[in-house]
Design goal:
The protein is α/β, with parallel strands linked by helices. The chain is 37% helix and 21% strand. Strand 4, helix 5 and strand 5 form a beta-alpha-beta unit. Bound molecules: 6-O-phosphono-beta-D-glucopyranose. The site of 6-O-phosphono-beta-D-glucopyranose has 3 residues, from loops.
Length: 489
Amino acid sequence: MAATIIPVALFDAVVFGATGDLTLRKLLPALYWRFRDGQMPPGARVIGAARSELDDAAFRERAAGALAAHVPQEAREAATVDRFLASLFYVRLDAARADGGWERLAAVLDPERVRVFYLATAPDLYGPICRNIAAAGLASPASRVVLEKPIGHDLASARVINDEVGAVFAETQIFRIDHYLGKETVQNLLALRFANAIFARLWNADVIEHVQITVAETVGLEGRGAYYDSAGALRDMVQNHMLQLLCLIAMEPPGSLEADPVRDEKLKVLRALAPMTPERVASHTVRGQYDSGAIDGARVPGYLADLGDGRRSTTETFVALKVEIRNWRWAGVPFYLRTGKRLPHKVSEIVVQFRAVPLSLFPGAALEANRLVIRLQPQEGMQLAMMTKEPGPGGLRLAPTALDISFEQAFGLRYPDAYERLLMDTVRGNATLFMRRDEVEAAWSWAEPLLEAWAARGDAPRPYAAGTWGPSAAIGLIERDGRTWHEGG
Ligand code: BG6
């Protein structure tokens, strides 16, 4: 099935932090795919900006290396790669300084084009860079600025960043990335919920018994120790990606799929989350830190050994939470969230557990209530577990079966990376899949008391062996309620 590609307007995309990991691993490969599919208009330019002494040729050489590492060979036709590389340019710029060489960037930019400033830098530079963009007279009305997470490390620092960026750009020009929102399967949550009447009618506390959201990773620190140790799993995954998934699952139908109606509904979910009081934190949260163990049969070191230098740390690499949404739709329905590094499989999934039938008509049959498993990655798809009559004579014997949709089988398409969609949306000016200021701040308002309660308790995270599903207390968290985690993967 061929996908319809709608070209975007002519643009100049300035990538600050052009020699960094995000640019090379994600942004350039994503732009290449969009170029290859004919979505980037001829003449669109990507202008790398960083402090290194490079010229266009040297930057293109780095970009070629990045494509070789991150785009499969069969998609790297030499002529296409060459044409793409010719759309890349480089400007040497110390963007944190007002006198860092902005005149060089100004000389390159075309005032007639959509202008995207992508800040692939440390968040503490977002404010200074925006100030300098404005001082250099480069913040045209057709500009957008793209910010990566984390937006701050708590509510106060998020507000400072939002104020600083907001002093230069209007909220409609600010695109805060949560790359989970760009994943195809996450966008599909909107289709599942709002294009299918059967689910729309069943999506509430009368029919749904509980929901689980799991984002499990097998990787450890991947060389990001300095950042990760100051963040931890709650800031790195829960405050943003997991809460966004929760919002999409729980929100009311928006009036349209325009940016603000969608974000208004997500915001209401965030504001309806039961506050994390110290008592709730004690009974509804588990934090863990991985110890040495084995992943896929290979020994891996523990978190402290990964950090190195004999460092001690009480940063969590695993979180399990029981969350409640205080509104009419969800009253009494627990949402169990868990995420961690060095778990047995890479799997992101949402499990919607329906209630049991009110009375069984099948004596002796162990009826399993319906359960919808939405596989976000890998092996993207959906499974609806149902009870079915086992064929054959001699009474009515039932067996659990599944309606099973594999997206690969249904569509057979390559799954575009989240950044492909998000980058093109910034050029289009479509902010539906980006976080608005009030959403980010509402997420911090909820997360901050939790972080404070953990800090006040002062207890170390519970150890778990790499390759297991986190500390046993995480299993206790859900089993106490007579439920079990769905073992995907
Ligand atoms: C990032 C986190 O936002 O998401 C990483 O900082 C994490 O720690 C990553 O590994 C997971 O993303 P994905 O797309 O691989 O599920």
